[in-house]
TrEMBL record:
<dbReference type="InterPro" id="IPR012334">
    <property type="entry name" value="Pectin_lyas_fold"/>
</dbReference>
<protein>
    <recommendedName>
        <fullName>Pectate lyase superfamily protein domain-containing protein</fullName>
    </recommendedName>
</protein>
<dbReference type="InterPro" id="IPR011050">
    <property type="entry name" value="Pectin_lyase_fold/virulence"/>
</dbReference>
<feature type="signal peptide">
    <location>
        <begin position="1"/>
        <end position="24"/>
    </location>
</feature>
<keyword id="KW-0732">Signal</keyword>
Length: 504
């Protein structure tokens, strides 16, 4: 497969670079992940059986298919006036034709020029690709008003299939596990889409001390019913009462905190096979702190198995790409977020924001953002930020607030901070920002890495940074191996995991 060959080249070149520099540095391995004699990864469990998760199946089609080159079905030219209606009409007309065997309707090609967009362009059907000719195809968000320039979203929400909920019977299902036992498997079969449900409970929040965040007028203490997590998975095998799943557990299922359950689900309105390619998006603005203008360049939600590729955004107030909580298996690659315009305060400049699950952001660049590679509240992983860079950062990279789980930051470089910590009463009471977060060969000016009191650990391997305590003292220290020590093998955990997946 082409994608496998490309990954092999990347892994080989990375390895050659390290070996060339071996005279100046000693190659080493983590005690948690080692390379066996056959070159495969071996994961060492902790005292509870937790391991570093497998992040290989994130992104478009779980990395099992190459992003398609959709055939051009319509070609448009800029008029220099309002082109929004013309582009929207082309999208709506293309939405009426049937999808092909791969779920694709086709691409709309926007030729070089400036397309003025006073509102939002909306994609609400499967198989639509909006493609430009690179940075000379400019979609310009004109006029005033905070809005999203391109919105790709279906409708509806995840719905539990009635009478399919089954209790997980294991007392503890560790992080990294891809199987567990249930009370029975009646009504389940291989290929079923299921939710692995991890309840929020009052005693869990109490043990996390998130019911006692230092008070202030806007504070919201955590409440159990707000912290149920729904992990979307697919059944790959059934053996008696054991269920095997395609992606790992990234937050332990613990009987003391309500255990876990599984149930089948539907999501009828979710769309797929949508792509935004090779475009520049810009926003008009009135001064560096203006906030009455384009806010998100691209927004995805209620969407799966889709992509954003080769997009450059300039002058937006919030993001280049914003993935909503119902976005799944999205690949964002080779994108740039430049020169955002807003006040430099909370709620602004989240260059590449991910609130969904099984998403991949790779080979991206951000300048002058606040939270350039970031997750939000109750984000159910796994998710990956790979080979991304941030310059002139105004704040930190990492899980931003309220318990994101299972994120890999792999070869992320910033001149700002990367923090995984208890954020306390920042915002409306962000508290513990994340658990089971992994930093692998990352570089930053300084880093705080703390472990939550219960239900997870956070890791940093071969971190090139100054380590500091974080905002709040007295929190458990995260696991740090090889601080300012080069030569960690493999150079990229994500690429190595993908390489092993392709060989199976």
């Amino acid at each position: 497969m082409k994608i496998l060959n490309k990954l092999k080249v990347i892994v080989l070149l990375s390895s050659l670079f390290l070996l060339h520099d071996a005279s100046a540095q000693k190659l080493w391995e983590s005690k948690y992940i080692k390379l066996k004699s056959d070159g495969k990864l071996a994961y060492r469990p902790d005292e509870q059986g937790n391991i570093i998760p497998d992040f290989s199946r994130v992104g478009y089609q779980q990395g099992q298919k190459t992003i398609p080159n959709a055939p051009v079905m319509d070609t448009l030219y800029a008029t220099g006036n309002d082109d929004q209606q013309k582009i929207q009409k082309a999208i709506d007309e293309l939405s009426k034709i049937p999808v092909d065997k791969n779920g694709i309707r086709g691409a709309i090609l926007l030729k070089k020029g400036v397309y003025k967009i006073p509102g939002s362009i909306k994609i609400t059907a499967n198989g639509i690709v909006l493609r430009g000719e690179g940075e000379e195809t400019v979609l310009l968000a004109t006029g005033k008003g905070q809005r999203k320039t391109i919105i790709a979203s279906g409708n509806g929400k995840l719905e539990e299939v009635p009478n399919t909920r089954i209790k997980i019977t294991d007392n503890y299902v560790p992080v990294g596990a891809k199987y567990f036992n249930v009370a029975n498997t009646k009504g389940l079969k291989v290929g079923d889409k299921i939710v692995v449900f991890r309840p929020g409970t009052a005693n869990w929040i109490k043990d996390l001390k998130m019911d006692q965040i230092e008070d202030k007028p806007t504070l919201v203490q955590w409440k159990a019913d707000d912290y149920h997590l729904e992990f979307e998975r697919v059944i790959t095998a059934i053996k008696g009462n054991r269920i095997d799943i395609d992606n790992p557990i990234v937050m332990a299922m613990e009987t003391q905190y309500g255990g876990g359950e599984v149930y089948r689900y539907t999501f009828e309105g979710r769309i797929n096979e949508v792509g935004i390619e090779n475009l520049a998006l810009e926003s008009e603005y009135n001064g560096d702190t203006d906030e009455d203008h384009g806010w998100d360049a691209i927004s995805y939600n209620r969407i799966e198995n889709s992509w954003v590729s080769g997009v450059t955004s300039k002058y937006f107030g919030y993001s280049c790409v914003n993935l909503g909580n119902f976005s799944k298996q999205i690949t964002v690659k080779d994108c740039k977020s430049l020169s955002p315009k807003s006040q430099i305060i909370g709620g602004r400049r989240y260059s590449f924001n991910n609130d969904g699950q099984l998403n991949l952001v790779m080979n991206c660049y951000a300048a002058e953002g606040r939270h350039d590679y970031v997750t939000g509240a109750k984000v159910a992983g796994p998710n990956v930020f790979y080979n991304c860079r941030s310059e002139n950062a105004k704040a930190d990279i990492g899980p931003h607030h309220r318990w994101a789980v299972g994120t890999l930051y792999d070869n992320v470089v910033t001149d700002g901070e990367i923090n995984i910590q208890d954020r306390g009463n920042w915002g409306t009471g962000h508290g513990w920002s994340g658990a089971n977060q992994v930093l692998w060969n990352c570089t930053a000016s300084k880093v705080a890495i703390q472990n939550p009191y219960v239900s997870g650990k956070n890791y940093a391997f071969s971190l090139n940074a100054n380590l500091y305590d974080g905002r709040l003292k007295g929190r458990p220290v995260g696991i740090v191996e090889g601080l300012n020590k080069k030569g960690l093998m493999p150079l990229s955990l994500y690429l190595k995991q993908v390489e092993e997946l392709k060989k199976k």
